[in-house]
């Protein structure tokens, strides 16, 4: 994707740190989807960038956000602890959600979350903390089980997408599905493994996610103009 399609650099204050992300708003956007990246990933994840591109083609704005700073990422590469700190990740995603509600470019747009790996658990915890704001959640190969007791408090319609060959994660998602009390669905991509690297698998993820968001985010949106010039938005 070229630079203009990926959007602009934004910095968001969250919990005493500045998080970096890429915000892209297509013309007439009917919602905005914040991406919560998972284990050892970032806003540069080719899989999440591919899904984000498909969402923008469907008229949805996207915020590809790093929930850890560069310094924290370096530590996490060694320890792998912060990626499992679901409360920390959820706190920062909530701060980013509040920022989306205040920023001129996204104010009034319904908010959705897209969580991958441990980011799936963080997205559900954050959705439970902002039940009147978050309209839809999609988890790709996620760990919704890590949301714990928050699962029962989620009100946003939730779609869990898991690869059929990702056996352990599939079982964990099935257990989490039973604990959700909102509108919910589990979609299994036949033959796909955890990273959805098989031909056509990621495209299927993008299609399922786009359809879910368009169903749940489109109503009541206030369309916003596109924003493609690089800048830093107010924190």
Provide structural commentary.
The chain has 235 residues and is α/β, with parallel strands linked by helices. The chain has one domain (14-217): 3-Layer(aba) Sandwich (Rossmann fold), CATH 3.40.50.1820. It has seven helices and eight strands. It has an eight-stranded mixed beta sheet with strand order 1-2-4-3-5-6-7-8, sandwiched between helices. Helix 2 (46-57) crosses helix 7 (201-217) and helix 4 (86-102) packs across helix 5. Residues 220-235 have low confidence and may be disordered.
Q: What is this structure, in a nutshell?
A:
With 235 residues, this protein is an alpha/beta fold. 36% of the residues lie in helices and 21% in strands. The protein is globular.
Summarize the topology.
Layout: H1 3-6, E1 8-14, E2 17-24, E3 32-36, H2 46-57, E4 61-65, H3 70-79, H4 86-102, E5 111-116, H5 118-129, E6 134-140, E7 158-163, H6 167-179, E8 184-189, H7 201-217
Parallel strand pairs: 3-4, 3-5, 5-6, 6-7, 7-8
Antiparallel strand pairs: 1-2, 2-4
Helix pairs in contact: 2-7, 4-5
């Amino acid at each position: 994707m070229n630079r203009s399609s990926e959007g602009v650099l934004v910095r968001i204050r969250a919990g005493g740190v500045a998080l970096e992300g890429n915000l892209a708003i297509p013309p007439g956007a009917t919602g905005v989807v914040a991406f919560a990246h998972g284990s050892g990933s970032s806003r540069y994840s080719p899989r999440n960038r591919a899904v984000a591109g498909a969402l923008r083609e469907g008229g949805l704005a996207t915020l590809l956000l790093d929930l850890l700073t560069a310094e924290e990422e370096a530590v996490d590469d060694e320890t792998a602890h912060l990626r499992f700190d679901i409360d920390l990740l959820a706190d920062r995603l909530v701060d980013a959600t509040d920022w989306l509600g205040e920023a001129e470019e996204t104010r009034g747009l319904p908010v959705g979350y897209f969580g991958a790996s441990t980011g799936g658990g963080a997205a559900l915890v954050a959705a439970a903390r902002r039940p009147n704001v978050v309209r839809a959640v999609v988890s790709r190969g996620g760990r919704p089980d890590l949301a714990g007791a928050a699962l029962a408090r989620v009100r946003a319609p939730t779609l869990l997408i898991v690869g059929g060959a990702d056996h352990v994660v599939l079982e964990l998602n099935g257990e989490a599905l039973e604990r959700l009390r909102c509108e919910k669905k589990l979609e299994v991509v036949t033959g796909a493994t955890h990273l959805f690297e098989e031909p056509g698998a990621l495209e299927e993820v993008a299609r399922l996610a786009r359809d879910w968001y368009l169903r749940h985010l489109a109503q009541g949106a206030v369309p916003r103009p596109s924003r493609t010039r690089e800048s830093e938005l107010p924190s």
